[in-house]
Design brief:
Rossmann fold, 2 domains, Alpha-Beta Plaits, single chain, binds the ligand O=P(O)(O)OC[C@H]1O[C@H](O[C@H]2O[C@H](CO)[C@@H](O)[C@H](O)[C@H]2O)[C@H](O)[C@@H](O)[C@@H]1O, 4-stranded antiparallel beta sheet, 12 strands
């Protein structure tokens, strides 16, 4: 990487840093990845943020003991480089809605409901035949949730999340703050939700990269074949930061 002080790096988690797994809980964080990210972040002067659909506390656990700036729930919550967290607040009615969804989902064999606080996901990876049922139900629940929410489609998943946020907004917010400001953004992701980051990055003259084994419909400027390929690049760039003690 030429002159790391010019760049800010924004990384998606699932399918980008970590291989996809059958369920949200069964992902495996490769040994060495958290430390590699920590070293790479140091090389970038701290201008590395994780931008994910996961809830922030879950994302934090994946990379402990290191603490990175993280935007969670597709940008609905965001911890900046000073450790300050901001969140889109949702009303108490959303708890009732999530409980009703979880009850109804018991009739859909193999479908998993992931309660993420201000967002809720219905996963059909273990039951692809349930896709239409799940999508129709989530449209119905979205109507009940109201205009403060939106549907987020992803890989074998449909989510209801706050409408007043996106990964693109989160990336923009980071770029207005130290240590990200005055740097060119690089965003790397693998899914529909990451396209919002790619659009912002493209407008700002940065670099957008989609992880995809096969040609994907994307506005990203380039592609990488897999999460493991990206991890090997991160390892290489991170290693360049190691100095003899
Ligand atoms: O923005 P991301 O960090 O990519 O998060 C997107 C969603 O990732 C998770 O779901 C996806 O990964 C699961 C584990 O590999 C997989 O089982 C599922 O099919 C994928 O859709 C996560 O569970 C969601 O909450 C995130 O929004």
């Amino acid at each position: 990487m030429q002159d790391p002080s010019q760049w800010a790096l924004f990384l998606d988690i699932d399918g980008t840093l970590i291989d996809l797994a059958e369920t949200p809980e069964s992902i495996v964080v490769p040994a060495g990845l958290p430390a590699d990210l920590h070293r790479l972040s140091a090389r970038l002067g701290g201008a590395l943020a994780l931008v994910t659909g996961r809830a922030l506390p879950f994302a934090d656990e994946l990379f402990q003991p290191y603490v990175f700036p993280i935007a969670g729930l597709h940008g609905s919550e965001r911890r900046d480089a000073t450790g300050m967290t901001t969140r889109v607040e949702v009303g108490a009615e959303f708890e009732t809605l999530k409980a009703a969804l979880a009850r109804e989902a018991q009739q859909w064999p193999g479908v998993l409901i992931e309660n993420k606080g201000a967002a809720v996901a219905a996963h059909y990876r273990r039951a692809p035949e349930q896709r239409e049922v799940v999508e129709a139900a989530m449209e119905r629940y979205l109507d009940m949730a109201g205009e403060d929410f939106t549907l987020q489609h992803g890989k074998m998943v449909v989510e209801i999340r706050p409408a007043r946020a996106s990964k693109g907004h989160a990336l923009m917010a980071y770029l207005n703050e130290a240590p990200f400001q005055d740097r060119k953004p690089i965003a790397i992701g693998d899914d529909v939700t990451d396209e919002a980051m790619f659009r912002v990055v493209n407008e700002l003259g940065g670099h957008s990269i989609r992880i995809s084994e096969t040609p994907a419909e994307t506005v990203a400027q380039s592609t990488l074949p897999s999460a493991s390929y990206l991890r090997s690049l991160i390892h290489r760039f991170a290693a360049e930061t190691v100095r003899p003690e």
